[in-house]
Amino acid sequence: MAQPKGLQRVLLLPDVEKASGLKRTQIAQKEKDGSFPMHIHVSERRKAWIEAEVVEWQQQQITKRDTALAAKKAAAEGPPPPSCQRGANEIQEVDERLCRGRHLQQTVPKPRRV
After folding, report:
1. Residue 114 domain flag
2. What does the pLDDT look like over 35-71, one tens digit per residue?
């Protein structure tokens, strides 16, 4: 990630724990495996994290969640009914509204008595 030039706001461990929902040991493990931003040393014994990097990490987590939810929803809906696909049985008239959005099960209309 290209760092913007200028002064960067830093977060100390208690702020990072609140922002991420992780504890110190979890943060350290995720830093080690590369799934969390690395800390910087602001003094010999004090660690801090660049706020912009922590915010970017949060956004990545939100994107992962949203992508997983969309995939789960798509899998639950399943493929569209065959009558919604082009070239399906031309004898049945298909109401196009049923083929948009949610795929509702269609029933074959009963023949009218004359």
Report:
1. no
2. 999 999 999 999 999 999 999 999 999 999 999 999 8
Bridge-partner residues for 49, per DSSP? 11
Determine the structural domain holding residue 21 and report its residue range.
10-75
User: What is the residue-wise DSSP string for 53-67?
Assistant: HHHHHHHHHHHHHHH
Establish if 111 belongs to a structural domain: no
The per-residue pLDDT for range 71-110, each reduced to its tens digit, is 888 888 877 666 555 554 444 545 555 555 545 445 556 6
- Residues 43/52, Cβ–Cβ less than 8 Å: no
- Cα dihedral across residues 97, 103, 108, 112: positive or negative: negative
Provide CB contacts within 8 A for 19, sequence distance 6+.
11, 54, 58
The C-alpha atoms of residue 77 and residue 36 are separated, in whole angstroms, by 34
43 found inside a domain: yes
How confident is the model over 22-34, as pLDDT tens digits? Answer: 999 999 999 999 9
Is position 27 within any domain?
A: yes
